[in-house]
Amino acid sequence: MSRKASVTESMILDSAFALMQEEGFEQVTARKLAAKAGCSTQPIFRLYENMDQLIGKVYSRAAAYFAAFCEAYPQKESLPFIDLGMAYISFAAKEKNIFRLLFMSGHQGEKSMYELLNGEKGTVGREVARAGAKGVRNPGELFMKLWIFIHGSACMALTGDFDLTEAETEALLISIYQAYTEAMK
Amino acid sequence: MSRKASVTESMILDSAFALMQEEGFEQVTARKLAAKAGCSTQPIFRLYENMDQLIGKVYSRAAAYFAAFCEAYPQKESLPFIDLGMAYISFAAKEKNIFRLLFMSGHQGEKSMYELLNGEKGTVGREVARAGAKGVRNPGELFMKLWIFIHGSACMALTGDFDLTEAETEALLISIYQAYTEAMK
DNA sequence: AGACTAAAATAACATATGTTATCAGACGGG
DNA sequence: CCCGTCTGATAACATATGTTATTTTAGTCT
Known about the structure:
Largest interface: A-B, 30 and 30 residues
Oligomer: homodimer
Shape of chain A: elongated
């Protein structure tokens, strides 16, 4: 047969993801990636047709990373949507570049915001059901309104126009949740 | 004396602004701008030290454009903040590239979101005063909450995750306004 | 009209990027 | 142990960008 490859796909993809995370997806260039992976640019083009395809894989990985982040985020609140919202805002603050790629780049060849949020676990669906069980009249509408607020918070966190602590953020979300549910009674 | 300049600053700045509006500020390159202005790249560097300085001017112009847009937006609603919010969301939907430059690029060497909103006319201050006069308990807090929602709507409009008509948007904003004010009583 | 001078076009330089060609060599199989 | 083959490094090509040097050109003033 032929020679064994010393540069593996995971070496490249790991490096590409790290580069995106640290410097933004615009900075994932062939040469920078090669330097990060400790090889020349050749293995990249053996593994991927072109840089766009590679970025597509990085995007998928970012989506999985986000899902895992939400999964791992502490579920302390009994109200539906709040924990997911807290995870989302926290993610935007801590992982600006990943958040940008997933939710602000218009890179939606892959998934819509709703699909990303819902993930493989059907998170949003589960939360909507929880809200319904709690007696919320129109849980889908509540989710939409809450999510717009949460997305706004996250985007402002990214640009530095929102700098509350986690505790303050949580209190704010709860107050918003209550205002919405009261108004929908 | 010497020769008169045939390429004026306004020719360059107009072209740069148009280019930013049509293709995004990342696309305002020396050569593309020269082509748009119908000259070579030389006059650009006579008028500006470098491309960054030029983009700074484009940014200022965009801020003025946004202020004028808000000024011209129909003031039909008697509730404070709503007209400004409608203008903001409408602006995000119609002028994606300008909105990106002003509110999503982290290009805040110039002005914060609040300064941009408040403009020269003190728009936000005026609206806060109006809300106070209407008996709102804590108009600053109300503004903050409403604005997070409005910014979220605008950002989602940009990425295609928010596609309500103007009328639907207005109804939504009013319902949010009422939910917040009720909750703050 | 002619000379001077600044403007503007052209061309060049330096760098960055995607992508491909060339080629030495390392590895698997006989 | 050698052969073939595929890997991966180097180098190259093509393009894009900011910026600067050089040259041409066109006003302006005398």
